[in-house]
Amino acid sequence: MPPKFGAKKPEAAKPAAAKPEAAKPDPAAAEKLKGKKIIFIVGGPGCGKGTQCDKIVAKYGYTHLSTGDLLRDEVKSGSARGKKLTEIMEQGKLVPMETVLALLKDAMIARADKSNGFLIDGYPREVKQGTAFESTIRECDKVLYFECAAKTMTERLLGRAKTSGRADDNEATIKKRLDTFYSETEPVVKFYEDKKKLKRINAERSVDAIFADVVSSLGAPPVSAATALKGKKIIFVVGGPGCGKGTQCDRIVEKYGYTHLSTGDLLRDEVKSGSARGKKLTEIMEQGKLVPMETVLELLKDAMVARAGKSNGFLIDGYPREVKQGTTFESTIRECDIVLYFECAAKTMTERLLGRAKTSGRADDNEATIKKRLDTFYTATEPLVKYYEDKKKLNRINAERAIDAIFQDVVKALGPAPPAAGQDKLQGKRVIFVVGGPGCGKGTQCDKIVAKYGYTHLSTGDLLRDEVKSGSARGKKLTEIMEQGKLVPMETVLALLKDAMIARADKSKGFLIDGYPREIRQGTEFESNIRPCDIVLYFECSAQTMTERLLGRAKTSGRADDNEATIKKRLDTFYSVTEPLVAHYEKQGKLRRINAQREVTAIFADVVGAITAMEAAPARAPGAWMHEGLPDLGNGAGPQIRVPRPSPAEPTASTFVINVLKDLATRTVASQHWSKTRASTLEEIDVETYRSKRRWRSLLTSQRQEQVDEPLYQKIDVNSLLAECQPDAETQDCFIKLVPRMIAFLESSLPFDVTKVVVGGSYGYDTLVKSRNDVDLFVFSKELPKAGHVMWMPSVMKAVEALIRDCNKGQIPECTDFTTSKFSVGFTCQGIEFTVFLTHDWESERAGGYTRLYDESMRQRNSENRRMYSWAAARRQRQFILDQEEDVRDVIKVVKHWRNGVDWADKSRRPSSYLRSHTHVLP
Length: 923
Description:
The protein is of the alpha/beta class. The chain is built from 35 helices and 21 strands. It folds into 5 domains: 27-218, 3-Layer(aba) Sandwich (Rossmann fold), CATH 3.40.50; 225-414, P-loop containing nucleotide triphosphate hydrolases (Rossmann fold); 423-546 and 575-616, P-loop containing nucleotide triphosphate hydrolases (Rossmann fold, 3-Layer(aba) Sandwich), CATH 3.40.50.300; 620-725, no CATH class; 729-917, Beta Polymerase, domain 2, CATH 3.30.460. The strands form 4 sheets. A 6-stranded mixed beta sheet has the order 18-19-20-17-16-21, with helices on both faces. It has a 5-stranded parallel beta sheet with strand order 2-3-1-4-5, with helices on both faces. A 5-stranded parallel beta sheet has the order 7-8-6-9-10, sandwiched between helices. Helix 3 packs across helix 5 and helix 16 (346-360) crosses helix 17. The radius of gyration is 38 Å and the shape is elongated. Keywords: ATP-binding, Cytoplasm, Kinase, Nucleotide-binding, Transferase. It is found in: Cytoplasm.
């Protein structure tokens, strides 16, 4: 019969010979178990507490400790303590309470890092044991007492006896055990009931009913760090003092919704709080000691868990400073996703810090102290940088440039911003950008739109002023920026707009965005981060009219900037900034010009017409600029369309664009041998032969027209054609979100080291056109075979295809329609055609040899290199388009649309896909 650990010894029994020392408090144990729930479990044999403990462990992540199990395990271990326990039991003595306590404490400390708390089962059995536990280890949080009648427990134990084979499952023994339990337990129950810690649970019901009371008593399960931080980005931010990482962190917070945590700020806040931990920190600092790493980690973990529900991720600034801190963070909390290292020369950081010293008043902003700080930083950081670079997590950011240029690289490293909480509320809401100079009357028109359509009018100026007045952390930051005379970062304005739109989405049909965008980049950032606009209302008004209105307002407004000189400057700024913006949205077919020189009612009638048309037709109808009933561009080989001749009132293409169109069309005809000699002008082309080729009918007029007697270029309204070729907003949005995910997937999943990924195709050089949307992804790696080993490539490509087919990891949507060649894998993902090309990274091995390599890869028919995409080819292709004027870059969108299937064999290459860099900027 097994010994009854902890049972009362008959009076004849003698205590163990050696009397152990009295239990003493253990500060280390108390610190280790801080924040962990400790629950005593009390209940007689057969009450069902074992079943309930299993359910508590599963739901709450607590650790179930039974003193009986701990004693048996220690005996089995053969340790010195285990041998001592065996000796005591063989002598029929009671195991000393101090030994049981030591076993409990050791077990709890060993499991503390991976447990939310502890269920102590079978202890205490008397008041003295409970008080000894609480004075030695820590006070318990709660006592769960599973109450059950002796009759019920007896029946359960007898029922168990039929299958258990246990010798003590007989009625006489059960009675003795229950008598002992009741006599011992009553004082313990009363003791903890008096301390308001006891919870009586009726254990005579079903398992689920009992557990419902347990949950009611314990409350909601604690959230572990791993659970709370699941799906949250963790980014370590590394950089020397004065590198500008604080500024970049502010921008990241605004754009990505991440939380910026500085270990220095956390320590200072904890000290100010006056908490027990804060007092301990004060004591450590006053003694000039270093704060233990464990304490810093605990502060970080607590802060991250507390903010996890409202944050997309965390920027950990100032930690780690050495490799050990990083590995401890990742083993205790979670691995980081990425490390941003803001590289800056010591000279630059010194100059910045000395410049700051003129206004900061900080004692450590002097040259000698700065040098020491930088020396310390470089010494500590070099191993850290190497460690994370080896793990492929480090992103070096050149922090010696302008703030915007630095942030562009940060965005490339981090990828697209996650949607904000509640951003789905903006689905189906109309967004109208309102553009117009000062004094154009757009404010009056916005009021009328709000009254008629129920839209919300948002002015960026008002939002900024309201945020400052609110006294929020962001408001204080804005005040600081404005007082320094700096521009408010675009990311902050976007964040304010997004927050305001989400907050008002439930009660609004749509939004009038007034005063934003003021430049193209602001518009594209808004549309990629929030949602595409539907239309742009441009209230056109002459400078003279706006000046007169503003001067008239000056008589009553008292505004200092309503004077003629200031008005002229404001108007000059408006026109210089707005013209590119207007042209951008006009090309997209979204701009609605409103003549704002008339009286208010007449202006509003045009506004109503524009909004009514927008609401009636969510997307611009294809072929709107063509004759009714004729097919649209891009619906197969040779669509039959008739391009209208522009009327004198309509805008016409510049002479330069016309000449380019003529040249492109002429060279196309010549390259296809559609005429024996190269024609110098379109007039010299055999138009009837040219027109008879099915693929090129779209360049001319409809077959219904009997005679073509005018040059081709006179029949093309290039501006309308360009606008019509633009893809819809949904397509662009899909590209913006999907392409970075695809690149990240390739970089992280391919079975070799990727040097860089360059994006080409329609998406690669912003040459998307309707029905011609594709992406080429050029993957460069030194591990891929060179030209002499091209026989390896087919097997490599098959492996890559298999990897992309297996989309179960959820990193990318499902891919279909695979076509694999020796050097590429083609597939479709969410309606977008992707082609992945793999090539050896020639750049690093043949620096300076781009032209020669280009000749090898593109012109020499017998060269193996010719069949492989090279970095030189990418560079040459990209440079071709960059060398052209803006008008030509626009025309290429049209040419790509027309050129499907054309082969310019044996001609100087004019590629149909122009590459641009994604992860690295090409020289």
